[in-house]
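Hey, quick one: can you model this chain's 3D structure?
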Amino acid sequence: MYHQKTNYFLNDIPVIILTGGQKEYSEGDEYWTAEKRKIYSDSLQLDLLNLSTNSKQIIAENSGHHIHIDEPQIETEAIRELVLKLKDTKKE
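Sure thing. Here's the predicted structure for all 92 residues.
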């Protein structure tokens, strides 16, 4: 189904996938059934790791979809890490 390794579209460009650890969605939101939430969090987010050979996932344990609001320090640190990795790449 998912998690099939393919050619890495972004080669070795650094990629960080931020995933909310809290799975809250609006009451009555019929689109986000329990099954769809599981597919999204367990499969589709992990599939993003296949974009690059230089990728990782960070789980924001106290956030839902709005990591930038709930835990902005995680997003800021991920951006900082990517900038440093890209600077190191240019030095080589």
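One thing worth noting: Helices lie at 34-47, 67-70, 72-91.
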